[in-house]
Amino acid sequence: MAKHDQVVASFRRKVDVEEYARIRELYKAHSAAEDARDVPGLLVTLTSDCVYEIAQTGHRWTGHTGAARFYNELLGAFPDLVFDLRHIVIGPQGVWEEADVHGTWRRPWLGLHPSGGLIGFPVQILFPWDAAAGLFSGERVFIDNQVLLRATAPVLENRSARGGGSRRG
């Protein structure tokens, strides 16, 4: 089925109260597992062929192995990460959330060097619903990567001033 046809079919899906309840409960389980740093608990909410993607950067992780890597990298980089939910929409296509994220940036993430300090940025996440599997098929994450780049600027300037910021050594 062509992508356009998939979007149209998704748009035309009827709202089913029981399916809505399943999507909502699975989202709550996914969020609770994330808050508890329970990666296996997150994986049971996802299809085996799930895809995690940062839309602006093109970073992509596939399958349960990829999803586990995504979460381990994210939670390793920001061990005290908190999502302050601003908006949520639940429907037969899945879940969309908007949140303010903040945490202490301790390790590299997305190829960027950590600032070591507290960082906050807005995020929007789509959790596409796979009705046949009764699970989410991943996450499509939209972040303001300019915030991340601004946070790394002092780190890069300090590395460069010490002579460690050049690719040539």
What's the overall geometry?
globular
What percent of residues are in strands?
25-35%
CATH architecture assignment: Roll
Strand order of the largest sheet: 2-1-6-5-4-3
Order of helices and strands: HHHEEHEEEEH
Query: How many angstroms does the end-to-end distance come to?
Result: 50 Å
Subunit arrangement of the protein: single chain
CATH topology group? Nuclear Transport Factor 2, Chain: A
Q: What percent of residues adopt helix (DSSP H or I)?
A: 25-40%
CATH class: Alpha Beta
Q: What are the low-pLDDT stretches, counting only 5+ consecutive residues below 50?
A: 154-169
Structural class: alpha+beta
Indicate the radius of gyration in whole angstroms: 18 Å
Average of the residue pLDDT scores: 86
When the domains are counted, the total is 1
Biggest sheet record: 6 strands, mixed
- What's the number of helices? 5
Number of strands: 6
Describe the model.
With 169 residues, the chain is of the alpha+beta class. It has a single domain (3-161), classed as Roll (Nuclear Transport Factor 2, Chain: A). The chain contains five helices and six strands, in the order αααββαββββα. The protein has helices spanning 3-11, 17-35, 39-43, 63-77, 145-161, and strands at residues 46-54, 60-62, 82-91, 94-104, 118-130, 135-143. A six-stranded mixed beta sheet has the order 2-1-6-5-4-3. It is globular and about 45 Å long. The N and C termini lie far apart (50 Å).
